[in-house]
Amino acid sequence: MDLARAHGLSTQAIRNYEDVGILPAAERTTTGYRRYTPLHAQALHAFLALLPGHGHQTATAIMQAVNRDAADDALRLIDESHAQLLDDRRTLQAVEAALRDLAPVPQERGDTFIGPLARRLGLRPATLRKWERAELVEPRRDPHTGYRVYSAADVRNARLAHQLRRGGYRLEQIAPLLAQVRAAGGVAPLESMLHDWRTRLTARGRAMLTGAAALDAYLTARAAGPPTAGR
User: Is the alpha carbon torsion for 129, 135, 139, 143 positive or negative?
Assistant: First the structure.
């Protein structure tokens, strides 16, 4: 199938894309073969262009909306992706700001317990306990009650861990970095991570522009009417 070969895909992949609504429904020949047109090629091009910026799930939902003539739904999904990208940029800025402000904090100041800290960060207490097991935070125990006591430094590290998690980093990536920060008394170990994070956000933003152009071309082609059929 020319459509599959042109994009380095299998014939079955093209059929699957049609079945789930990524491609518009193809007409069938009298012998039952699907007839794909230039419009299908544009739909496939748009989908593949949307993938790097929006991810498979959202790119699929965008194409499904377009193919059922619900362009407003597709544009809303795109808006939501852009909003998430903006939020991720703000998270990166917050991490950078947190690192700039990173400084030794007296252990006797800023103490709090697991419940208030979890509420402050918008997390469950179980998440903080998991982070403790992963050595992201190291609260001490109250000798009388046995409760976890988070110092101001622990709170700072929990905030930093939370921001890095939102940036897509795994616990096993964050733990050694925070350990280095604590040991070195500085944030140099995180500089390469932040650079990589910023690079990925920039690439994602550029990919969204590429995807938008391809989708706009597909929308224009759909509005122009059915093209001549081909194989």
Answer: positive
User: How far is residue 124's CA from residue 118's CA, in Å, rounded to a whole number?
Assistant: 6
Rg (CA), the chain: 25
Concatenate the DSSP letters of all residues of 180-194 into one string: HHHHHTSSGGGHHHH
- Cα 16 to Cα 104: distance, rounded to the nearest angstrom: 56
Helices and strands in the chain, H and E counts? 9, 4
Q: What is the pTM of this model?
A: 0.68
Taking the C-alpha atoms of 60, 66, 69 and 74 in order, what is their torsion angle to the nearest 10 degrees?
90
Give the C-alpha separation, 105 to 154, whole Å: 9
The residues of the chain scoring below 70 in pLDDT are 1, 98, 100-110, 181-189, 226-231
> Do 203 and 35 contact (CB within 8 A), yes or no?
no
End-to-end CA, the chain:
7
Longest dimension (CA), the chain: 83
pLDDT digits (tens, 9 = 90+) for 130-173: 999 998 898 999 999 999 999 887 887 888 888 888 877 888 88
DSSP annotation of 7: T
> Crossing angle, helix 191-224 and helix 38-67, to 10 degrees?
110
